[in-house]
Design a protein that fits this description.
heterodimer, A: 117 residues, mainly beta, 7-stranded mixed sheet, B: 112 residues, 6-stranded mixed sheet
């Protein structure tokens, strides 16, 4: 176990549904990330939260809405998704130092396998 | 932005042989290069990393080499075992310390 948990592990939803993915880290880290992993493509960074503030939004469609209520929890709210959004959604966390300068490992959760019908 | 390319996409070796996976990057400012192993049904896990001020690092059967001039780095696995079978990802991180760029992955199959 990496100390990062994700629920649910599997999710099937219709295009008109609204659902949320949850991530929790038990490592005391101050940065959390959402990645999308599609078949035969590099991991795509979606969002980054550092000290509970969103610091990165990689041109992700508005049908994906992140929320970081505290440094241990991260959500990804989903609505009106498309079939091409089907993928493995990975959450990660790391301990970052303000101003950078350190090379800190990202710890990944097991992912949520999302299927959009 | 950074662009990381990884080769090969699939690699099949006999148990006991060595496996080498190569990555190139485009941004000379990148200074941290981790390698991740992803087993079926799990998220990626760090197996080894290297900083830009080091040319080589070894941890038991796993080693990573970095050539900053050529902007490429490689993962070497010696005496491969069936449990090494997984997908391996390289990554590069630059001055934006929150942002990692990943390669497209190599599926390694170690045949017993």
């Amino acid at each position: 176990e990496t100390g990062v948990t994700q629920t649910p592990r599997h999710l099937v939803m219709g295009m008109t549904n609204k659902k949320s993915l949850k991530c929790e880290q038990h490592l005391g880290h101050n940065a959390m990330y959402w990645y999308k992993q599609s078949a035969k493509k590099p991991l795509e960074l979606m969002f980054v939260y550092s000290l509970e503030e969103r610091v990165e939004n990689n041109s992700v469609p508005s049908r994906f809405s992140p929320e970081c209520p505290n440094s241990s929890h991260l959500f990804l709210h989903l609505h009106t998704l498309q079939p091409e959004d089907s993928a493995l959604y990975l959450c990660a966390s790391s301990q970052e130092v303000v101003g950078g300068g350190l090379y800190n490992e990202q710890f990944f959760g097991p992912g949520t396998r999302l299927t959009v019908l | 932005g950074e662009n990381v390319e990884q080769h090969p996409s699939t690699l099949s070796v006999q148990e006991g042989d060595s496996a080498v996976i190569k990555c190139t990057y485009s941004d000379s400012a990148s200074n941290y290069f981790p390698w991740y192993k992803q087993e079926l049904g799990k998220g990626p896990q760090l197996i080894i990393d290297i900083r830009s001020n080091v040319g080589e690092k070894k941890d038991q059967r796993i080693a990573v080499t970095l050539n900053k001039t050529a902007k490429h780095f490689s993962l070497h696995i010696t005496e491969t075992q069936p449990e090494d079978s997984a997908v391996y990802f390289c990554a590069a991180r630059g001055n934006n310390f929150n942002k990692f760029y990943f390669g497209s992955g190599t599926k390694l199959n170690v045949k017993p």
